[in-house]
Amino acid sequence: MNRPNIWSEQQEILFEDNHLLILNKPAGVLVQGDNTGDEPLSVKAAEYLRFKYKKPGAAFVGVAHRLDRPVSGVVALAKTSKALSRLNEMFRDNKVHKTYWALVGKCPEPTSGHLTHWLVKDPIRNVTKAYTERHGQGLKADLDYQVLGQAGNRFLVQVNPITGRPHQIRVQLATGLGTPIVGDVKYGFLNPLPDVSIALHARQLEFEHPVTKEAMCFRAPVPEMAHWDAARAFYPA
């Protein structure tokens, strides 16, 4: 029996223990299933675990948070119901520190700051609109950002979302700063990227291990795509 063609452990699997499976999700892959019927990351992970541990039945994989399909980066999956319950609580209570990298076409002004909007999602069109004041059933969204520097002909922005709303970073950068993310035609960038991804990457997750209580920090390298090449210069020494 051949190993399923899911990931090479050296690249996509960042960490694994008895309770957690931390992955570097490729852009274009769903985290959880939707009406497209495409196989999501959660199912791929369950297949990997079933094969690795020679399980006769299905392996447990719990999804505590999601990344948009065209976004790459760190995803934390739970291998036990105890870990999933506690991870869900930590994400809900903003006890997980999230760091994203985004490439934008022009330098945001100011180059660092805090953005607050009220977001209203249109589920039919799958787009979110941001308002600077309270609006109907809009959900409050907060993030901090800073420009790390120029990366080729783009600018690399580090974003730390405080809340976790659908399309939050994408719509807040586009609306609040007038700097849509490279490739994100849904929110105002002019041209798509060749692989139809967007230049938004979940760079790092920091949280307390849900079972062992150890401080954990997981960092994912950016994709091996040309538009990310210049961003590698910003890796820590």
From TrEMBL:
The organism sits in which domain of life? Bacteria
Q: Does the keyword Isomerase apply?
A: yes
Supply the SUPFAM superfamilies for this chain. Pseudouridine synthase
Identify the keywords attached in UniProt to this record, alphabetized. Isomerase
Q: Which residues form the Pseudouridine synthase RsuA/RluA-like domain?
A: 19-174
Could you confirm whether the keyword Isomerase appears in this record?
yes
| Pfam families xref list | PseudoU_synth_2
* CDD domains for this protein: PseudoU_synth_RluA_like
- Membrane-spanning ranges: none
Family in the record = Belongs to the pseudouridine synthase RluA family.
| Name of the protein in its database record | RluA family pseudouridine synthase
UniProt source species: Hymenobacter lucidus
